[in-house]
Amino acid sequence: MKVVLVACILSLLHLQQCRALGILYPKSNPVREIQSLDGLWKFALVDADPEEEGTEDYINLMAVPSSYNDISTDRKVRDHVGVVIYERNFFVPESWQGRIIWLRFGSVTYSADVTINGDTALEHEIGHTAFVGDVTKYLKFGANNHISVEVYNVLTEVTIPQGVLVKLESGRVKQNHSFDYFNYAGIDRPVLLYTTPQTYIDDITLRTTIDGTTGIINYQVVVKGNATYTSKVTILDEDGRDIATNEKTLNGSIVIPNVNLWWPYLMDPYPGYQYTFRVELFDESTALLDTYDQLFGVRELSWDNTSFTINGKSIYMRGFGRHEDADIHGKGLDLAMALRDYSLIQWIGANSYRTSHYPYAEEVMDLADSLGILIIDEPPADHTDLFSDQLLENHKRSITELINRDKNRPSVVMWSAANEPQAQKEEASDYFKEIIAHVKSLDKTRPVTVANVNEAENDYSGQYIDIISMNIYTGWLQHDGDLDVIEAKAVDVAETWHKTHNKPVIVTEYGADSLEGYHMLPSFVWSEEYQNQFMSSYFRAFERLRQEEWFLGEMIWNFADFKTPESISLFSYRQPKSSAFLMRKRYWGLANELDNVSLPEDLENFVIGKPTRVRHEL
């Protein structure tokens, strides 16, 4: 089969639109069924210049979900630029006749063209967010069906994130980009086929506030279809007990007396408490028509020019920048790795991270909700430049998909509209004015930020955001090796940001890398000793800044190794470097001071039982 690769560059004008709403995660229940299409798919590499016609080059099988780049030993697969094709067969039972059949991808990076039994069923552009569509008319019931997914990984000046193609002297086409992580691609999150009735619950929006000991849930439920129905909304606690009911409306409010609030990890003995919001639709004979359970936490955020609080208590974020990145499967969902990561986050005493620099898997976000980990949620807009109208529309669409997906998550306490954009350019002003206005048009219950590497006097985005996020690399990318300049510079940059915009400030990135096992005295860059001393210099700066109410927290870059020419991390292969033990002492020390948390018994190793007298000979 021949493929014209130019046609794979998807334009908004030609996309079969996936629904803006209706991105609820598929769940089995008495009226909905799910079939997973995860597993081994037939895989083809289209070996051609991305701007020319190519042919399939099958290399056998590919795991779904996973990035395809690192699974093969073939360099050609890892460095491929252009189209790859996934194919498989799947069976649709006869019993599914009469229902709507939906096909949902958790993420395909960067764009996808999905055909079922030879007909185009779905198209989507922008990785890391889910898309879904009604595929009923393309299916054969009681028979095998064939699905093919063409995945295109090329980035351009109008994609999110951006990139450019370069043809090398050898003739090979290479993808260049300004972001510093590997451009993994493929079907990297679950693929699910599921059913709903013809009249179904399409979307749920929940907003929570607190009045004393009472939780107030404002809700809006969208139902699609033509059937006549009655509805019932029920709140269930963690033990499954009904505690509140409303049978009058799908757009209203419901109260929870003596509410259990959702608290972050280490801010309360019982973090991450979640209720279930259950919606039920009944037909005219009172038979169950459709139902959906949505987990949620009751918490209230507030912020002003000097503070950020949850449930009336000040938040001090201690956490990480991260990447979804692991050996072999790249950015593919790995639940075992997700559990390991959260175990390490809890071990070190962190309470937060930013989804740098793209939305993370829904299953990973579910764990943040249940464990009480605070999230700054970010679209795939990294090092944004060349501010065009088409880029603006794609950027806004990526934000819309992110917020529609994550709007009900208690863990998500802030939206980051971009990471390290070229906001020093004057044209960035109108661009980010519109971007931030778009975020706030979708959700006014969370503050908005931009992770900025510029200094305040060279920025056009800070005037529009609610909280200043600053990335600073004094002692590493600037003044590398100069430990003595770190403290004063970090304090000065943060104070200047606050004075310029009169807004709270958080450090969302700082860090220096080390080679595991490389030691040097006196310390020097890349040694573990330098990394520890570097961190201690920033700790001194943060202690000075913590005297100011407007300083909201610190997030080191990066949590764990990821594929890039430069890696700055505390965990190598998810095992701690010496710097992780230093960070653990700081984060648990902060938790002890701010929230009266007991320190772990293994925070310090035993050294000596009682002081030893030192004799001085004259």
Automatic annotation (TrEMBL):
Keywords: Glycosidase, Hydrolase, Lysosome, Signal. Inhibited by L-aspartic acid. Residues 34-197 form the Glycosyl hydrolases family 2 sugar binding domain. GO terms for molecular function: beta-glucuronidase activity; carbohydrate binding. It comes from the Eukaryota. Residues 1-20 form the signal peptide. It holds the Pfam family Glyco_hydro_2_C. Residues 305-591 form the Glycoside hydrolase family 2 catalytic domain. Residues 199-299 form the Glycoside hydrolase family 2 immunoglobulin-like beta-sandwich domain. GO terms for biological process: carbohydrate metabolic process; glucuronoside catabolic process. It catalyses: a beta-D-glucuronoside + H2O = D-glucuronate + an alcohol. Its EC number is 3.2.1.31. Plays an important role in the degradation of dermatan and keratan sulfates. Homotetramer. Belongs to the glycosyl hydrolase 2 family. This is Beta-glucuronidase.
